[in-house]
Amino acid sequence: MTQAYTHRFTEVHQLAGTLDPATYNGPTIEYTPYVNLAHHQRGVFIVQVGTMGAASTLLCSLVQSTNANGTDAKSIGAVADKLVILQQTEGDGNDTIAIEFRTDELDVNAGYCYIAGTVHVAGDVPLSALLLLGGSNQLAVPTAMWTQIVD
Asked: Which CATH class for the 25-134 domain?
C-alpha cells in the first residue's frame, strides 16, 4: 500500500521489533523478534551505533525463518547480501545503518515468511535498533509497539 498524504506514517509502517539502547558486550548475538511478513511487501532494519570500544566489531544482518521462534533461521540470499560490518579500528562508530529488504527476497517456496534483524557484537558496542515494515496489504497496521504517537 502506498502512503497517501493523509495517512499517518504509523498507519502504513509497522514498528515490528526493537533492540533497546544499551552497550552490548561481546561476544554476543542479539535478535529483534521474528515477525511474519504475510501482510507486507518491504521493510528496513535500522541500527544506530554509538562510540565503539577499542578493537570492537559489529555485524548487522537480516535472517529469515519459517516460524516466530527462528529455529531454522538462515541468511537472505548469499550471506553478504544483507550484511554490514563495522570495526572500531577502521574508525567506525557513531553510525546509522539501514538494511532494506523486500518479501520477494525470502525463500517463500520453502516456507520462509518470518524475518528478524540481528547484531553480532565483539567488544563493547553501544547501539539501538528497530525493524520497520512497510507496504502493508491492509490499513491500518498494528501500533501496539509504539509507546506514544503524536500528530
From this structure: mainly beta
Could you report the per-residue pLDDT of 94-142, keeping only the tens digit for each? 889 999 988 889 998 999 999 999 999 999 999 998 888 877 766 666 6
* Residue with cell string 518470518: 114
pTM: 0.85
Cα 134 to chain centroid, rounded: 12
| Nearest C-alpha neighbor of 16 from the set 98, 117, 151, 126 | 117
CA 91 to chain centre: 23
| Of the candidates 60, 75, 54, 46, the residue with the CA atom closest to the CA atom of residue 121 | 60
CA dihedral for 61, 36, 43, 148, sign (positive or negative): negative
